[in-house]
UniProtKB/TrEMBL annotation, chain A:
It comes from Streptomyces sporangiiformans. It is a multi-pass membrane protein. Residues 98-309 form the ABC transmembrane type-1 domain. Residues 1-30 are annotated as: Disordered. This is Sugar ABC transporter permease.
TrEMBL record, chain B:
The keyword Transmembrane applies. Signal peptide: none annotated. It is a multi-pass membrane protein. One of its GO terms (cellular component) is plasma membrane. This is Carbohydrate ABC transporter permease.
C-alpha cells in the first residue's frame, strides 16, 4: 500500500526524462538476448519437457483412455466403451465411498479453515514471532503415515492417553477409529492436526497484506477486536481465503494415506474413501479400467468444485485497492 | 513504525482489552499444546517397554526406560528377543529404509530442481518461438491432481520394468513439476536484465550466465523450494506403495505401514512402532530446524503465488 502511494510521483520524472532513454535500451537488450536462443532453449527445456510429456500429459490422456477399457495389467487393454461408467453409476459401493469422501471433506475443511483462520488472526494480532509460526508448522513436516500412527496410538481404545483422559473425566472409552460413526470424523481431525499449521501460515501471509493503519484507525474509533475481524480482516482476506479453500478442498478429496494406515477402509466400509476404493479396485482386484473410470469421475468433481468455488467466492477480485 | 508512534494514544484501549488479550494468548497456547504434545508422547512411548506401557498407560515419563524399541526398529534384535519384548520379529530394518528414503528424496530434489531451473530460465529469459504457448501448457499441468496420474504412471513404470526399483519411485517427479518451473520462473524474471547484459558484454555465454549469475542470485528461493521438495518426497506414501514390493526399494513411509500391519498376537508393538516413527520423522525435523526461518517466511510466496 505504502509502495503504491509513493510510486506515482517517482514515476512521472522517470517517464519524462529517463524513460525515453531507458526504453530503447530495454528493447535493444531484448533483441540482443533474442539472437540465436532457439537451440539453447531447446537444450534447456528438453529434460523438463520429457518429464512433462511422459509423466504428466501422457498419463493424463492414458488415464482417460483406460477408463473406456477393460484392463488387468497382464493382457492388453480391451475397449469396452462406456461399460465402466455404467457399472460405476450402478455401483452402490462407489456412491457410498463418494458420500464418505464428501463427509470427510466437509468435516476436514470446515474445522481446518476455522482453526487455521483463528491461528492466523491470533498470530497477526498478538505477535510477529517467527518461532511460533515455525512451531505451528511442525506437524506438517510429518508424513500422513506418521501423523496417522501417532494418533492411532494416542486414541487407542485400551492404552491410548486420549482415552485415559476421557475416562479420567468420567466418560466412557471411545473406540475412535474402530467405530463406524467416529472413524471418519477422527481421520478428518487427524489430518486437520497435520495440515492446519500450513493453512494458517498461508492465511497469515494474506493478513500481512492488510495495511496496519486500518486497524490503528479502527482502534482510535473504539472498535472491538471482534468488530475489526468482521469489518476489516474478513472482507480483505476473502480473495486469499478463496484461493486457499480451493487448494485445500482439492487436497482433501485425495485423502488416502491416513485411511490406509489407521482403518484400512473399515469398519464395514465406513472409511472407504474414494481414493481407497480406487486403489483397491486397481491393486486388489486388478480392475484398472474401472479404477480409471472412478479417477476420471473424481477429476470431473474436482474441476467442477474449482470452477464453482471460484465463481461463488469471486476469487479473482480483491477489495484491497 | 506506525505502532510505535501511536502507542500512547492506544494505551487505554489496550488496557480495556487486556482480558481479551489474555484469553487470546491462552487460546494460542492451547493450540500449540495440541500441536506439540503428540511429539512428546511419541518420544515417551518409544523409550518405554511394551509391558510398562500396558501396566502404566498414563505415566508422563517413559515406563521402564529402554532403547529396545529402537533396537527392534533398526533390526538389531534377534526375532526371538523381539517377540519376547512384544515385537513382531518381522525383521524390518529401518537403517535400510532410511538409506532408501535418503537416496530417493535426494535424487528427486537434486534433479527436479536442476531441470526445473533450466526450464524456468528458458521460459523467463530465452527468446524462442512458441515460448508462451508451451508455458501455458505447463501451467495447465498444475490443474491435473497428482493422484490422477498415479495409476497410468504405474502402468508405464511397469512397462519400463522399473517396478520395485528406487529409480521407478523417483522417475515421475525427477524431471519437473509444473509448480517448481512456475515458481522459479517468477524469481528469474525479477533478476535485473542489466546484470545479465553486463555479463554478456564481458563475453560470457548464456550457459555460463545461467550457472554463474542466475543460479547464484536465485539461491535463496532454490534452497527453500529444495527443502520443501525434499520434505514432500520424503513423506510421499501412495506412489511408493504402488511401486515398491520388497526391501530393495522400500522407503520409510511404506515400511512404517508394514510395521503397523505386522501386529503380533500380544497386541501392537507400540514401543517399536513409535521408535520407527521417530526414525522416519526426525530427519525432517532436523532439516526444518536448519531452514525454519527461511521456509516460514517464504510460505506466503509459495502458497499464494
Amino acid at each position: 500500500m505504502t509502495v503504491a502511494s509513493s510510486s506515482p510521483p517517482s514515476r512521472v520524472p522517470l517517464r519524462g526524462v529517463e524513460g525515453t532513454e531507458t526504453k530503447p535500451k530495454v528493447g535493444k537488450a531484448r533483441e540482443h538476448v533474442g539472437r540465436g536462443d532457439g537451440a539453447l532453449a531447446a537444450l534447456f527445456i528438453a529434460p523438463a519437457m520429457l518429464g512433462f510429456l511422459v509423466f504428466l500429459l501422457w498419463p493424463t490422456l492414458r488415464g482417460i483412455w483406460l477408463s473406456f477399457t477393460r484392463f488387468n495389467l497382464l493382457t492388453p487393454a480391451e475397449w469396452v466403451g462406456l461399460d465402466n461408467y455404467v457399472r460405476m453409476v450402478n455401483d452402490p459401493i462407489f456412491w457410498d465411498s463418494l458420500t464418505v469422501t464428501v463427509e470427510y471433506v466437509v468435516i476436514n475443511i470446515g474445522v481446518q479453515t476455522v482453526v487455521a483462520l483463528a491461528i492466523a488472526v491470533l498470530l497477526q494480532r498478538l505477535t510477529q514471532s517467527a518461532v511460533l509460526r515455525g512451531l505451528v508448522l511442525t506437524p506438517y513436516l510429518m508424513s500422513n503415515v506418521v501423523a496417522g500412527l501417532v494418533w492411532l496410538w494416542i486414541l487407542d481404545t485400551q492404552l491410548g492417553i486420549g482415552n485415559e483422559i476421557i475416562t479420567a473425566l468420567g466418560a466412557d472409552r471411545i473406540p475412535f477409529l474402530a467405530d463406524e460413526t467416529w472413524a471418519i470424523p477422527t481421520i478428518a481431525l487427524i489430518n486437520v492436526w497435520r495440515h492446519v499449521g500450513y493453512t494458517a501460515l498461508l492465511l497469515f501471509a494474506g493478513l500481512q497484506a492488510i495495511p496496519s493503519y486500518l486497524y490503528e484507525a479502527a482502534k482510535v474509533d473504539g472498535a472491538s477486536e471482534w468488530r475489526m475481524f468482521w469489518r476489516i480482516t474478513m472482507p480483505l482476506l476473502r480473495p486469499v481465503l478463496a484461493v486457499v479453500l480451493i487448494m485445500t478442498v482439492i487436497g482433501s478429496f485425495q485423502v488416502f494415506d491416513t485411511v490406509a494406515v489407521t482403518t484400512a477402509g473399515g469398519p464395514a466400509n465406513a472409511t472407504n474413501v474414494l481414493q481407497y476404493y480406487i486403489y483397491g479396485s486397481a491393486f486388489g482386484r486388478f480392475q484398472f479400467g474401472y479404477a480409471s473410470a472412478m479417477s476420471v469421475a473424481l477429476l470431473v468433481v474436482l474441476s467442477a468444485i474449482t470452477v464453482l468455488q471460484y465463481r461463488l467466492t469471486r476469487a479473482g477480485q480483491t477489495d484491497l485497492g | 513504525m506506525a505502532a510505535v508512534t501511536t502507542t500512547t494514544g492506544v494505551r487505554p484501549v489496550r488496557r480495556r482489552f487486556s482480558l481479551g488479550r489474555a484469553s487470546a494468548w491462552a487460546m494460542l497456547g492451547l493450540i500449540l499444546l495440541i500441536t506439540l504434545l503428540p511429539f512428546y508422547w511419541i518420544v515417551r512411548t518409544s523409550l518405554s517397554t511394551n509391558s510398562g506401557l500396558s501396566a502404566d498407560p498414563t505415566n508422563p515419563l517413559p515406563t521402564g526406560l529402554t532403547g529396545s524399541g529402537f533396537e527392534r526398529a533398526l533390526g538389531l534384535q534377534s526375532a526371538k528377543e523381539a517377540i519376547a519384548q512384544g515385537g513382531a520379529g518381522g525383521g524390518l530394518d529401518f537403517w535400510r529404509y532410511l538409506l532408501n528414503s535418503v537416496f530417493v528424496s535426494t535424487l528427486i530434489t537434486g534433479c527436479q530442481m536442476f531441470f526445473s531451473a533450466m526450464a524456468a530460465y528458458a521460459f523467463a529469459r530465452l527468446r524462442w518461438r512458441g515460448r508462451d504457448k508451451v508455458f501455458g501448457l505447463f501451467l495447465a499441468g498444475l490443474m491435473v491432481p497428482t493422484i490422477f496420474t498415479l495409476l497410468p504412471n504405474f502402468v508405464l513404470i511397469k512397462q519400463l520394468h522399473l517396478v520395485d526399483t528406487l529409480l521407478g519411485i523417483a522417475l515421475p517427479t525427477l524431471f519437473m513439476t509444473p509448480f517448481a518451473v512456475f515458481f522459479l520462473r517468477q524469481f528469474f524474471m525479477n533478476i535485473p536484465m542489466e546484470i545479465e547484459e553486463a555479463a554478456l558484454l564481458d563475453g560470457a555465454g548464456k550457459i555460463k550466465i545461467f550457472f554463474r549469475v542466475v543460479l547464484p542470485m536465485a539461491s535463496t528461493p532454490i534452497i527453500t523450494l529444495s527443502v520443501l521438495t525434499y520434505i514432500t518426497s520424503w513423506n510421499d506414501y501412495f506412489w511408493p506403495l504402488m511401486v515398491s514390493y520388497s526391501d530393495s526399494s522400500r522407503v520409510l513411509t511404506v515400511a512404517l505401514a508394514i510395521f503397523r500391519a505386522q501386529t503380533p498376537a500380544t497386541g501392537v508393538d507400540w514401543s517399536g512402532l513409535t521408535a520407527a516413527t521417530l526414525i522416519a520423522a526426525l530427519p525432517m525435523l532436523v532439516l526444518f530446524a536448519c531452514f525454519a526461518r527461511r521456509i516460514v517466511s517464504s510460505i506466503s510466496f509459495t502458497g499464494i503465488k
